[in-house]
Automatic annotation (TrEMBL):
The keyword Methyltransferase does not apply. The lineage of its organism: Bacteria, Bacillati, Bacillota, Clostridia, Eubacteriales. GO terms for molecular function: oxidoreductase activity, acting on the CH-OH group of donors, NAD or NADP as acceptor. PANTHER family: 2,5-DIKETO-D-GLUCONIC ACID REDUCTASE, NADP-DEPENDENT OXIDOREDUCTASE DOMAIN-CONTAINING PROTEIN. Belongs to the aldo/keto reductase family. It comes from the Bacteria. This is Aldo/keto reductase. The record marks 74 as: Lowers pKa of active site Tyr. Substrate binds at residue 107. The active site is at residue 49. Gene3D superfamilies: NADP-dependent oxidoreductase domain. It comes from Sulfobacillus harzensis.
Length: 283
């Protein structure tokens, strides 16, 4: 597995397995087991996904040594703040049945993120988290957090796919040594992505699937990707992207698909902020 080196020297797999929207515990557990069997070592979950326990059971059932795994989970908005973050992190560890996580992210840029970051810095220094980072932070919020705290986020996980390529964000994160990670690499199938003429043509030239082309495109940009599937064959296929290379011309073709717009929602929309902040986790 290829890795990227985070700003604190920790190696992170460039391709991982995400479990967003895998609500059924048995399905989630089996999907993680299938992913680990296929070769994935990065598993990405979150408190808000309500499947940390299933991920934890899969890890315990797997024969993969803990030190070979890279486990990510995330802090939800209502747990923001110094003391709440400490409690929420302890609960996540308990559900995951782990002594530490490799990456802990502030899931959304709302609430007392500064209190959360202070708690996460302490947990990081205590060795209970190997790397700390953020998710869904726009570049102004990311730079503000960097400038006013001691530890620079190792990762910012943001919506990134062929229709929202985040080119300017990638450049700024490189400047501040923050690793970019893609959520929603397949845009959840929107804009008919799997039948798009450009992507289908490139996939045909390599005898690959559109999904494999998208993941290869992200990897060649140096962006960590965490595709999700509950189908064993697709989980395996999505991992098979390290034995072909997209040409500069093909990378340029995909670049033309960028709309520079989210296909989901804006974190600057007050109604979205209110809706996310009101979401109560039933865990």
């Amino acid at each position: 597995m290829e890795t990227v080196l985070l700003n604190n020297g920790v190696a992170m797999p460039i391709l991982g397995f995400g479990v967003y929207q895998i609500a059924d515990a048995a399905v989630c557990e089996q999907s993680v087991l299938d992913a680990l069997a296929a070769g994935y070592r990065l598993i990405d979950t979150a408190a808000s996904y309500q499947n940390e326990a299933a991920v934890g059971r899969a890890i315990q059932r797997s024969s993969v040594p803990r030190e070979d795994l890279f486990i990510t989970t995330k802090l939800w908005i209502q747990d923001a703040g110094y003391e709440r973050t400490q409690r929420a992190f302890a609960k996540s560890l308990e559900r995951l049945q782990l002594d530490y996580v490799d990456l802990y992210l502030i899931h959304q840029p709302f609430g007392d993120v500064y209190g959360s970051w202070r708690a996460m810095e302490e947990l990081y220094r205590d060795g209970r988290i190997r790397s700390i980072g953020v998710s869904n932070f726009s570049m102004d919020r990311l730079v503000d957090l960097i400038l006013h705290n001691d530890v620079v986020p190792a990762v910012n996980q943001i919506e990134t796919h062929p229709f929202n390529q985040q080119v300017a964000s990638a450049q700024l994160m490189t400047e501040y040594h923050v690793q970019m990670e893609s959520w929603g690499p397949f845009a959840e199938g929107r804009n008919n992505i799997f039948q798009h003429d450009v992507l289908v043509s490139i996939a045909g030239a390599h005898n690959r699937s559109v999904a494999q082309v998208i993941l290869r495109w992200l990897v060649q940009r140096g962006i960590v990707a965490i595709p999700k599937s509950v189908h064993t064959q697709r989980i395996q296929d999505n991992y098979q992207i390290f034995d072909f290379v997209l040409s500069p011309a093909e990378m340029a073709e995909i670049a033309t698909l960028d709309t520079q717009q989210s296909l989901f929602f804006s974190h600057q929309d007050p109604e979205i902020v209110k809706g996310l902040s009101r979401r109560v986790l039933d865990i």
